[in-house]
């Protein structure tokens, strides 16, 4: 086979190019199908089977093991490209670019059990003591004495009760042992009320396990202009649909233990643009593609059963809880912009080398559901976050690369091998996706029973980067609640391609 026909014989590298990338990145958002010659269509499916295990660490008071929390993830892609003239082309690409599927199990700080409290024991003790002193200091001498006599069962509406009250108040104002005894008794009574309030709040905590599922679907509409055989300029709108849900459970999330959020199917629009250069005679092809951010004003359905816990902060906390319960608003979500660079060149007869490089702007990505954010602003000063904190955020941009070699073995069979690397999106990372980047190796095979169609299969093995996992309240700092090490994943893919 001549070198210039290799592009057709090795239509793409592997059908699992993205599979497991930093943050929520999954498909890799390739436009390679649109850059195929003439009329072309393809459909593919990929299956990701990760194993992500760890243990409690950092600020956790226990060091229990954490079972595999990553679920298998299945996603598909399809494309059609039409070349009505030598200078113009049109294509539609479908993929599922961003997603997550995880659930914690077993006994750990991400699963609720009967020992969970709204805050750690030391924090609750400190808050309880502060609340007792605050309430006691707000009482006048008359109120303190009245509370003490009420606790003894004295009827303060009777003449005898009024006389006892006047005598006791005089003795209290004189100080000494009587005042100390009364103060101790009133503080104890307040402490009982505060303890009952804390117990009631603890009863509001959620049951079950931390669980997250995110899915996006993209339709990219591409219009291409080819002024010469070598150049291809393309652009078009992108329609994206986003949906997801998250449940936070366990001691790790304190006040948010029991929090649920559901994002229904939300629609957004963005755009992409790019250009490609090729020299068919040597199977050289290079392309660069930019995809814009896509903005949403999402209606997130939130449930925060522990809102009454804000009353532990004092009267202002109780007012804040009531205001948050009655509040409503939209949540701003922006899926990130990205740049893909694809390179390919013949290096010898029947052999091509390829490279795919991707950048994703995860450092500017965050999700702060509306009521979640209001609660975070109320409690943020307690954890050093006076402006509140996000449910999810990432500290660094993602850079990934996939390089390999493809070779035609005979008229029916072709194969490829590849090596991939992903930088991750920062460490510590969110507890909802506790890995940082990867290394991988991949193998692909292509069977072409006829010149106009092929079947392609591939697999990749991933060594996932070790990570420290932190909650939203810890994001932006060095604190973390768990660590995940020595994890792996396997991805499988199957693709059908057809030229017409």
From TrEMBL:
<protein>
    <submittedName>
        <fullName>Long-chain fatty acid transporter</fullName>
    </submittedName>
</protein>
<keyword id="KW-0732">Signal</keyword>
<feature type="signal peptide">
    <location>
        <begin position="1"/>
        <end position="21"/>
    </location>
</feature>
């Amino acid at each position: 086979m001549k070198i210039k026909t290799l592009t057709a014989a090795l239509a793409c590298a592997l059908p699992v190019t993205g599979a497991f990338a930093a943050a929520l990145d999954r498909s890799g958002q390739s436009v390679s199908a649109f850059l195929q010659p003439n009329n072309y269509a393809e459909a593919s499916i990929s299956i990701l089977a990760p194993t992500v295990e760890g243990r409690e660490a950092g600020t956790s008071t226990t060091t229990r093991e954490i079972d595999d929390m990553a679920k298998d993830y299945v996603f598909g892609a399809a494309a059609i490209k039409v070349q009505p003239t030598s200078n113009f082309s049109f294509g539609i690409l479908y993929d599922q670019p961003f997603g997550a599927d995880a659930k914690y199990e077993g006994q750990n700080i991400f699963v609720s059990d009967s020992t969970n409290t709204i805050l750690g024991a030391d924090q609750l003790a400190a808050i309880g003591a502060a609340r007792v002193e605050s309430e006691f200091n707000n009482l006048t001498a008359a109120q303190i004495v009245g509370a003490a006599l009420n606790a003894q069962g004295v009827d303060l509406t009777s003449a005898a009760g009024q006389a006892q009250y006047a005598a006791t108040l005089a003795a209290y104002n004189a100080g000494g042992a009587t005042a100390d005894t009364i103060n101790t008794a009133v503080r104890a009574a307040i402490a009982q009320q505060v303890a009952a309030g804390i117990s009631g709040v603890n009863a509001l905590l959620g049951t079950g396990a931390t669980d997250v599922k995110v899915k996006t679907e993209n339709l990219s509409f591409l219009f291409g202009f080819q002024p010469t055989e070598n150049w291809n300029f393309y652009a078009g709108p992108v329609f994206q649909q986003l949906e997801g849900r998250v449940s936070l459970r366990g001691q790790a999330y304190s006040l948010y233990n029991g929090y649920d959020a559901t994002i229904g199917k939300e629609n957004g629009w963005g755009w992409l643009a790019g250009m490609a250069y090729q020299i068919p005679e040597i199977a050289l092809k290079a392309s660069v593609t930019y995809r814009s951010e896509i903005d949403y004003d999402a209606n997130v359905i939130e449930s925060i059963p522990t809102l009454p816990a804000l009353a532990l902060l004092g009267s202002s906390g109780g007012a804040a809880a009531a205001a948050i319960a009655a509040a409503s608003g939209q949540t701003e979500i922006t899926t990130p912009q990205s740049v893909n660079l694809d390179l390919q060149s013949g290096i010898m007869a029947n052999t091509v080398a390829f490279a795919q490089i991707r950048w994703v702007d995860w450092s500017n990505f965050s999700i702060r559901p509306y009521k979640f954010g209001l609660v975070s602003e109320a409690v943020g000063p307690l954890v050093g976050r006076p402006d509140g904190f996000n449910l999810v955020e990432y500290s660094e941009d993602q850079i990934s690369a996939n390089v390999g070699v493809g070779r035609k073995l005979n008229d029916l069979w072709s194969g490829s091998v590849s090596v991939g690397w992903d930088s991750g999106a920062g460490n510590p990372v969110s507890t909802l996706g506790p890995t940082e980047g990867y290394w991988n190796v991949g193998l692909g095979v292509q069977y072409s029973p006829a010149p106009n169609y092929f079947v392609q299969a591939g697999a990749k093995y991933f060594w996932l980067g070790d990570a420290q996992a932190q909650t939203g309240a810890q994001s932006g700092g060095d604190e973390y609640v768990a660590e995940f090490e020595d994890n792996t994943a396997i991805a499988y893919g199957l693709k059908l391609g057809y030229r017409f």
